Amino acid sequence: MQKAKLIRNQRITLEEVRFVIEVRAFEVPKNKKYPQGIKLKCVLIDVELGKPRVLLDNHEPHGFHLHTRLPEDHDFRVSLNILDYEEAIRVFFKEVRKVVSNEK
Amino acid sequence: MKNNELTMTVRFKDLSTLEEDLLALPKNKGVKLQPKNVVYFDSLPSFRNFMTLQKIEILTMIAGEKPKSVYELAKMLNRSIAPVQKDCQTLEAAGFITLDKEKAGRGTLTPKLSFPYHAILVKVPVYPYELQFKTAA
Question: Considering its fold, how many domains does chain A have in total?
Answer without folding.
Answer: 1
